[in-house]
From TrEMBL:
Gene3D superfamilies: NAD(P)-binding Rossmann-like Domain. It comes from the Bacteria. Residues 1-119 form the XdhC Rossmann domain. It comes from Limimaricola cinnabarinus LL-001. Pfam families: XdhC_C. Coiled coil: none annotated. This is Xanthine and CO dehydrogenases maturation factor, XdhC/CoxF family.
């Protein structure tokens, strides 16, 4: 799990994933060469402006799962921002959002469980 962001959502997810036995990295920036096909890239930002650089790099990687916290509106804006950067639609379609199997949850613990379950399901 390659986790970006700060606050209770990112911290809770990283702790839960580690407790479940998954390796967790919390880098300062995305480096595509350090993300392999077994990696899931997860973004937990409330300030969505910070996401585009990370997502652009993540989309250049072999990550099997890429997702970012936020509403459907935030996801649409995120996708528009990637398109404005020249990212192709098939690549943009790799970015999941809203993330988690439990729609609309705001509780950081429930969100963490929900996102981890979605990633595990996708890994199967």
């Amino acid at each position: 799990m390659v986790v970006f962001g700060e606050g209770p959502e990112a911290d809770g997810f990283a702790m839960l994933a580690a407790a479940a036995g998954y390796p967790v990295a919390r880098p300062d920036r995305a480096r595509p060469e350090e993300i392999d096909p077994r990696s899931a890239v997860v973004l937990f930002f409330h300030d969505h402006e910070r996401e585009l650089d990370i997502l652009t790099a993540a989309l250049d990687s072999d990550a099997f799962w890429i997702g970012a916290q936020g509403s459907r509106t935030a996801h649409a804006r995120r996708c528009e921002g990637l398109q404005d950067r020249g990212v192709a639609k098939p690549a943009i379609d790799r970015v999941r959002g809203p993330i988690g199997l439990i729609p609309g949850t705001r509780d950081p613990r429930v969100l963490s469980i929900s996102v981890l379950a979605e990633i595990i399901e996708a890994a199967r």
